[in-house]
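User
Please review the sequence:
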Amino acid sequence: MSPRSARLARLSRSVTFSACHRLHSKSLSDEENLKLFGKCNNPNGHGHNYKVIVTVRGEIDPVSGMVMNLTDLKEYMQEAIMEPLDHKNLDKDVPYFSEVVSTTENVAVFIWDNLQRLLPQGILYKVEVHETEQNVVVYKGEETIVK
């Protein structure tokens, strides 16, 4: 009997959180911020019901039949996403966003970084953040582009 090749799979889980924010860059004047971000620069902010899909990848364990235990992934997502972000003002309640504009792109990076600290090394594949039905950001850990 020949040994069976390792099978790779991707496993995804989603959560939804509610948060408010204001798109505003400290590097721009009030006029420039208003021109760039429009109504999303409202001084009182605005909110979203964000949907986040986290995908991990790895070998299917021959004993458990899983890439990762979903209960563990759920707990990691609770700690990395729900606890710091749900029902928060991103700009005022999350220290990361005191110096980083709270765009959906940067929310995805924040979530990626939080998950990287918790998950087994090399298993995180993708973080997908749906700000609205029409606006989606996908981040796969690409940190920089050489220019």
